[in-house]
Amino acid sequence: MFLARRTDPFEALVEVKTGLNKLGADQLNEYLKVAKGEGIDSVITISNEIAPSPGVHPTAGLKVKSNSKTQAHHLSWSLILAEAVKEHSHRGVDDPEQAWILGELIRYLTHEKSGVVDFSDMGDNWPKVLEAATDGSLSLKSPEAAEICQRWDQLLRFATLKLGSETGADVTEVIPRAHRQNPQMRNKEFVAQMCSEGVLAGVLRVPDGAADLSVSVDLRVRKVTVSTQLAAPDDRTPRAAIVWLVKQMKNAPECVLVDVYPKFRSTPFTATLQQLRDDPKAGLPESKQPPSKFLIRQQTSMGTGRRSTRKKGFIDSVIDSVIEFYANVFQDLQAFVPRAPALERHPKNDEKSNPQPNATTPAGAPGSPNAPPNPHNQPLHD
Question: How many structural domains is the chain composed of?
Answer without folding.
Answer: 2
